[in-house]
Design brief:
Two copies of one chain form a homodimer. Chain A is α/β, with parallel strands linked by helices and 588 residues long. The first copy, chain A, has four domains: 53 residues, Immunoglobulins (Immunoglobulin-like, Sandwich); 304 residues, TIM Barrel, CATH 3.20.20.80; 34 residues, no CATH class; 82 residues, Sandwich (Immunoglobulin-like), CATH 2.60.40. The longest helix of chain A is centred in the middle third of the chain and has 17 residues. The radius of gyration of chain A is 25 Å and the shape is globular. The interface between A and B is medium-sized, with 32 and 32 residues.
Chain lengths: 588, 588
């Protein structure tokens, strides 16, 4: 027999339903109920006062989907082979974001294992999985998960996920999991029947926010913290990526994120291996990564959209939506030197001042990317950068990201300039919800001038299938060449640990559209424009190490849409160091 | 001619209406409009696209009330006589909270001046005015103000307020103003027609919250900051008391309160006199008073309800509402030693953990009180402590507050145990709103079991009149005796500057209901109970300096409902100092 507990503070009774009959649970203090389940893998539900069987809020496995019963899992039974495992330090990481459902034809944890050699060849150190918590249907992005303790059954459930993490560790790769603690999905979300998990006093773009600071919030906070500790402990993940923490509203004196990182630090001590907590936030607020002892929340690192937006707009010329705040080479220069572009300046898109400067050393805690699931998939047609700009500009973006001052992150298939899109897809079984999602997507893009037929239907299974990687491209040009570019840049970064420093100095010319980024031991010179430019020699011009334009660069001439990487004589001698960063003003 | 500006970002035109005709204003960048007004005191309104004349959002004077036109004020014209003025330091302050409308029969700034000698005799150093910004009607508490730059016309307007502050300074008294930046009142609130001052994404108990971090919020924040600087600069106030800052919701990287205290610090430097920023907050969050350089908001001090609630419940035995979290002598002991009672513990009233410990030295930044406008006026009948407990217990409360480790604050009339209540009163001219307020008040107390006729009608003029102080009581017993008690305690505190230290050690006995508070040079021994107790001698028992029970104390015996203040031999020799505070565990 094993113990099982559930928090149901408003219920007068809670029963366990094992199919064969219902067994009452015993009331415990503070709204908790306890009971026992038979050993082995057992299907069960909880029944509250209204007699309706519901999945366990902490269900470890939902073999029948979000509306079905829960199944017990014996975490101790898995034959882990990763004892003594230590991940590469986060500041030297090359992160690879992947989506289980589209990474392979099969769309499973098991199938993903087959491609680990590819990731190793590429030079990846950390694999970040898009959310895997049980979400409605058999495919989806995963941000509408509702059984937060259960790995998606269609991906292969708990056993499959453990096999994947174990295989990653066996290959020397760290594993990071994307978790969503700011809201739950619209279908199969039964949490609210158990207790005050949500509050209408906090509104998110996706509905009622999570109750992090009102009555009953101790247990709600505990629910999410326990979830984090489970992924890190029972599934051996090396870190979490917290989705959209700006949508976590908490007025209490100890912010949820501070309590969370504090609990994870405790687990880290017990496990004896480093754990990282990475957050997505659009607040440009250094408090998130500041130590708890200095009034911060103690997160390890942050995704940095400012660098992405600055680089993306310079590469593509796009200016709609939030890209309207970017577009000048000077924006990119500021991102490279200061981390954030908006550090208190007026943002036209937000119609208010935005952000705050990072302090010394904090820039190295940002992740940089030119592609990720959002920046691709939130486009109407989910195009990748190469499809927007051509491969020449995509290669510039790669060099800036992979040799830049941030922890690089790339999105599955980016390394070969995948021809497949990453579109928005869902698999809701409720026809009303499905229609609402389809129409919502069309309406979202109608405001940007897209007609309905131009926007792929998220509910169309073809939208999902179309987004799967086509691994056959790997053997075809121009993909082979792009893969070679990525591999060489990644290998170079890993062979030059001084590039893990965030030190960077920038020269640029707005009119001529060139930018030169001096980094320890190297200088990366980009011509974003359509005309050849002559870039004045920097302090330490050496030999061309990488180039997208054969024979270019020797005389300072850079062809259009090209990038040259100079390796300085004497390696990092005289190159910028972290201490020099703040002293360099950005040209306007 | 003088310049006038207004922010109206959505308007296509703005006109100034001078009664004699309309003059168009000139559009400026970012939604501002500028125009000119004749010299001298001129009545004017602004007219937006819909043609309706509205008061100036920054109206300096509303001689006809919240729905009338605005009148110009020449701040430079007032004959100030307080050059070189320096207030007493906040940590040595004795604060007196007063409400202009009920402090005197006349209910005006001018009439309040007549009682300055009383405040001086009492030993007050700082006078805190309840809100004076123009609110609907001729009387009210003032927390529903809507013309935040205009002193209430019924109190005497700008000229009257300046005369009062000037007279306070002439008498050596500092002036603090209560300001409300978390919401505006329901009547006469035209701000929303001018711009996005409010947002339905933030909900307060009083309606839509102020837009501190969404689109347009730069100007909204600027509006409130300019308001603060005006009271401190143009009206010579020495500080502000910020109402209910927990209802200020701001997700931006620089919190409004941090921006506000930063701006006030700049003004302080320019003026060359200290300014204080005191906040009311129910968050028990030390971040509010932590320096900005350490991730805090840089406020000077906070009202501390925990001390009040702990003392109030021990004195009265009340346990309803938020008092349910208090009631033990141990709560009071923890408040005295640690500042907050709830420093992360579970609060039954809030049904969640609450608060966070203060760090060393922060306890001295709390204000302590046994009465204030809220704790009296938020009762159905607005009774003062003496009416609830009798004067014996009220005198214990006074000794604990005036000799305790917090900056003492008393509420008008408390010093003589005023027989007049302080009830909730309003004067809304809109009959629907008036009825809604009356019914709302009845419903609020119905949930505590009060029948409608037991709850005074806020709209009844008699409720207001009943709440006015009766200064004739000063010459009557038992009020004379109470006034003597307050005067002696206050004088003692001021004569012993070591009592400005927050150092305090407590011994107590929960069953016997006594508590001994050791402070620099003194020990205050209270018997809250109905039986005589024998309190073991403390380390430094000296002679009885104050007592509510003649001849008691010499043998350690304390009669019921009595307080004795022992003065240690050798004054503060061997008494607790600030550094000892944290080392003393609270008995449970």
């Amino acid at each position: 027999m094993r113990k099982v507990r559930v928090w149901a503070p408003k219920s007068n009774s809670v029963n366990i339903d094992l199919g064969s009959g219902r067994v009452p649970m015993t009331a415990q203090p503070r709204g908790w109920w306890s009971g026992t389940l038979p050993d082995g893998a057992v299907d069960y539900t909880f029944v509250l006062d209204d007699g309706v069987p519901l999945p366990d809020p902490r269900s470890p496995h939902q073999p029948y989907g979000v509306h079905g019963g829960s199944r017990t899992v014996d975490h101790a039974a898995f034959p882990w082979t990763d004892s003594g495992w230590q991940p590469a330090p986060l500041d030297t990481a090359i992160v690879y974001e992947l989506h289980i459902g589209t990474f392979t034809e099969e769309g499973t944890f098991e199938a993903a294992i087959e491609h680990i050699p590819h990731l190793l060849d590429l030079g990846i150190t950390h694999v970040e999985l898009m959310p895997v918590a049980e979400f409605p249907g058999d495919w989806g992005w995963g941000y509408d998960g509702v059984d937060l303790f259960a790995p998606q059954h269609a991906y292969g459930g708990p056993e499959g996920l453990k096999r994947l993490v174990n295989a990653l560790h066996a290959a020397g790769l760290a594993a990071i999991l994307d978790v969503v603690y700011n809201h739950l999905g619209p279908a199969g979300n039964y949490l609210g029947r158990f207790g005050p998990y949500f509050t209408d006093r906090v509104r998110t773009p996706w509905g009622d926010g999570v109750n992090f600071s009102e009555g009953g919030s101790d247990e709600v906070r505990g629910f999410f913290i326990e979830n984090a500790l489970m992924w890190l402990g029972d599934y051996h993940f090396d870190g979490l990526r917290l989705d959209a923490v700006h949508a976590i509203t908490d007025s209490s004196a100890v912010h949820f994120l501070e309590e969370l990182t504090s609990a994870v630090a405790g687990l880290e001590n017990r496990l004896g291996r480093p754990l990282c907590m990475i957050a997505e936030s659009d607040l440009n607020d250094p408090r998130l990564i500041r130590p708890r002892t200095r009034g911060g929340y103690g997160l390890s690192a942050l995704w940095s959209d400012d660098f992405h937006h600055a680089l993306h707009t310079v590469l593509t010329g796009e200016r709609t939506g939030y890209y309207s705040d970017f577009g000048y080479v000077s924006h990119l220069a500021k991102a490279i030197e200061n981390g954030y572009v908006y550090t208190g300046e007026y943002s036209a898109f937000r119609d208010r001042r935005h952000g705050r400067p990072l302090e010394y050393g904090e820039k190295s805690r940002l992740l940089g990317y030119i592609q990720n699931h959002d920046q691709i998939g939130n486009r109407a047609n989910g195009e990748r950068i190469g499809q927007l700009t051509g491969f020449a500009h995509a290669r510039i973006g790669a060099a800036m990201t992979l040799l830049g001052p941030f922890i690089p992150l790339i999105f599955q298939g980016e390394e070969w300039g995948a021809g497949t899109p990453f579109q928005y897809f869902t698999n809701h079984s409720d026809p009303d919800l499905g229609r609402a999602v389809s129409n919502g997507r069309r309406q979202e893009f109608a405001s940007f001038g897209w007609s309905p037929e131009q926007v792929p239907d998220p509910q169309d299974p073809e939208t999902f299938r179309r987004s799967k990687l086509n691994w056959r491209e790997l053997n075809e040009e121009p993909h082979r060449e792009m893969l070679s570019w990525y591999s060489r840049l990644i290998r170079f970064r890993r062979e030059h640990p001084e590039l893990a420093s965030a030190a960077a100095k920038v020269r640029f010319d707005e009119a001529q559209q060139w930018l030169a980024m001096e980094r320890p031991g190297i200088e990366v010179i980009c011509n974003f424009g359509r005309s050849p430019v002559r870039v004045p020699y920097g302090r330490h011009r050496g030999t061309v190490r990488f180039s997208t334009a054969d024979g270019a660069g020797a005389d300072g001439a850079v062809p259009p849409a090209a990038v040259l990487v100079f390796e300085n004589p004497g390696s990092s001698e005289g190159s910028p160091r972290a201490g020099e960063l703040e002293s360099v003003p950005v040209k306007k």
